[in-house]
Amino acid sequence: MAKVQVSESFQLYKRIFSEYMSGYWRKFAISLIAMTVAAATEPAFARLMKPLIDKGFTEQDKTAMLTTPLLVMAIFFIRAIAAYINETTSTWLSGSIVEQMRSRMFRKLLKMPVQYYDDNNSGRMISRIVYDVTQITEAGFNVITVTVKDGLTIIGLLGLLFYTNWQLTLFCFFTLPFVLVLVKVLAKRLRSLNKNNQDNYGTMTQVTTEAVQGQKVVKLLDGLNYETKRFAESVKLIKENNVRQSGTSSLNSGLSQFLVAVALSCILYFATLKSRTDGFTAGDFVSFITAMIMILQPMKRITNVTQSLQRGLASAESVFQFLDEHEEVDNGTHQLEQITGNIRFENVTFRYARSEKDILANINLEINSGQTVALVGSSGSGKTTIANLIPRFYTPLEGKITLDNIDLRDITLHSLRDKLALVSQDVVLFNDSVYNNISYGSNNRFSKEEVYQAAKLANALEFIEQLPEGFDTQIGENGTRLSGGQKQRLAIARALLKNSPILILDEATSALDNQSEKLVQEALDRLMENRTTLVIAHRLSTIQHADKIVVMEQGKIIEVGKHDELLAKEGVYSNLYNIQFKSV
After folding, report:
1. Closest CA to 315 of 206, 205, 208, 197
2. Which of 13, 27, 248, 502 maximizes the CB count within 10 A of its CB?
3. Residues 164 and 288 sit within 8 Å (Cβ to Cβ)
4. Are 439 and 497 a contacting pair, CB within 8 Å?
5. HSE-up (13 A, CA, CB side) for residue 131
6. How many CB atoms lie within 10 A of CB 305?
7. β-bridge pairing 406-407 and 372-377
8. CA 544, CA 29: separation in Å to the nearest integer?
């Protein structure tokens, strides 16, 4: 078990350095040289105690009295420069590792399939980038800095101790096996506690995110106490886990130092005896004791580094596990150029990963070029799932979907999605300017005139011009400074600007008041012109003029036809229509 853990730790280190340190070896070498120089000053200082005591104090040698203090000053000056170089280069290197990892993880996150977001806690996803990555620098560089610098210091001081008196130095080593066993036992405990901490931080982030995003619901439903309790519980778990970590680390450090102190006490006793018989001078004694005292701090840091090491390795495990997740599958090789927009579902069956039954069952549907096809039915009937299959957010279990007789799986994701535009009930806007939200993702390929024209066609220009800074107005997180109708019109302007031949409307007017709905519907009518359009509608009044209305129930298509045809059948659509208009 221990061999497996050591092997895994080595592999994590190897991966960190092979993937994230390439190109930085020169700076790393400079840092190592600076560490070595700083470490060498420790035994050099301890060694200077012998001439200072023997020649300066005992023999009153004027040369020694002058040169020794100057040498002490020189040693500490060199040490200060070496420490500065080491700190700046190591901070730059560890910061570069964090920068690379965060950028890579963020890009990876955006390339994950939609199913991954369905299955995973968003707070944990965020905390990996925000929290876990910072811990990796301790495993990837800071731990090595401490180990190399303090390790060299310990070796140098031990060399001085052996040179001064090898018999006394051997007393140091009888504590070493006990320290190693202690570190090994407590390291396993620390690794487990650090994994718990990652999960606890993910939970806290999740609770905080949900409370912030749902703050209106919290206020309206008097959820303050409930959310406060949830947050307090997550914070309490972090506190309790940190206490356990601190206690384990302190126990490790305290017991290690106690064992060293036992050895030091023995050495002090035997050094006093040796001074009487073996010509062990006062300078030798002071030099030996100085080295012994100086060795305690690097030994303490090395024993304490176990906690940082385990925390960093646990974080590295979490991060690399995420980075090794499978990205959104894109095996398509066909690049779409000009398309007519014919979409066909052929015997399509689909089930979500954790669902017990099929969401769609043997769907056959054709949407011809330029047609407007509406999907209606009760919640859970599969309407939105059909819309999500077209951009390949999900892949059918059985059957296939074609675009202009090409299987969607054979088309590259980028070229497929470039031909699609989506306007949904839940508009996604960014904390940016109005202009940047409309032109989002365009990579500056549109002129200002084109952006303004899109806003005008979307019936958005009038309210935009009334904003404090017009198109440069910052709209707040997800457009909090705009009304629902205004947000919808910005989304329509974005779709108009993209000018894709296929349009998906997912209940785009269901949450609007009559005045806003009128403005949005006018904009949608312009947007739908000369496009293949799939409309998911709750309000049947908005799809009466559709070329084809598809009625769904429990994942199956049960009626297809135009508005008047379906009313004449007096089936499910007719019942839905009558229920809606009787309630008006």
Report:
1. 197
2. 502
3. yes
4. yes
5. 21
6. 21
7. unpaired
8. 73
- CA-CA distances (angstroms) from residue 263 to 95, 116, 174, 305? 40, 56, 8, 22
Q: What is the pLDDT along the chain (584 residues), one digit of tens a residue?
A: 344 355 566 777 778 778 888 778 888 889 889 988 988 888 888 887 777 777 766 666 677 677 878 888 888 899 899 989 988 888 888 888 888 888 898 888 888 888 888 888 887 888 888 888 888 876 666 677 777 888 888 888 888 878 877 777 776 666 656 666 666 677 667 767 777 877 788 788 878 877 766 665 566 556 778 788 888 888 888 888 888 878 877 777 777 777 767 766 776 676 666 665 566 677 777 777 777 777 777 876 776 677 677 777 878 888 888 899 998 889 999 999 889 999 999 999 999 887 888 999 999 999 999 999 999 988 888 999 999 999 999 999 999 999 999 999 999 998 999 899 888 888 888 888 999 889 887 767 888 999 999 898 888 888 999 999 999 999 887 788 888 888 888 988 888 888 899 999 888 776 566 667 778 788 888 888 889 999 998 878 788 889 999 999 999 999 999 999 999 998 899 988 888 776 54
Q: Residue-wise over 379-390: b if at least 16 C-beta within 10 A, else e?
A: eebbbbbbbbbb
Tokens of 84: 């500065």
SS3 368: coil
Q: Are 318 and 105 within 8 A, CB to CB? A: no
Q: Can you read off the two tokens belonging to residue 183? A: 């570190």
Q: In this structure, what are the phi and psi dihedrals at residue 466, rounded to the nearest 5 degrees?
A: -90, -10
Q: What phi, psi does 337 have (nearest 5°)?
A: -110, -105
> Cα separation of 324 and 317, whole Å?
10
CB atoms within 10 A of CB 176: 12
Q: Which residues pair with 360 in a beta bridge?
A: 350
C-alpha closest to that of 390 among 339, 445, 353: 339
Q: Which token pair is 536?
A: 């998911």
Tell me the C-alpha distance between 195 and 329, whole Å.
Answer: 30
Rounded to 5 degrees, what are φ and ψ at 500?
Answer: -80, 150
Q: Which amino acid is at 143?
A: V
N-to-C CA span, the chain: 70
Edge-to-edge strand ranges of the sheet holding 406-407: 360-367, 343-350, 398-403, 406-407
Measured at the CA of 562, the angle between CA 556 and CA 567, to 5 degrees, comes to 85
Report H helices in 393-513. Answer: 413-418, 434-438, 448-457, 461-465, 484-498
Pull the structure tokens for residue 583.
Answer: 């309630």
Report the distance separating Cα 368 and Cα 391, nearest Å. 17
Question: What own/partner pairs with CB < 8 Å and gap ≥ 24 does 253-257 have?
Answer: 253/300, 253/303, 253/304, 255/182, 256/179, 256/182, 256/183, 256/299, 256/300, 256/303, 257/296, 257/299, 257/300, 257/303
Cβ neighbours of residue 402 under 8 Å, at least 6 residues apart? 342, 343, 344, 346, 408
Of how many residues is the chain composed? 584
What's the distance, CA 134 to chain centroid?
11
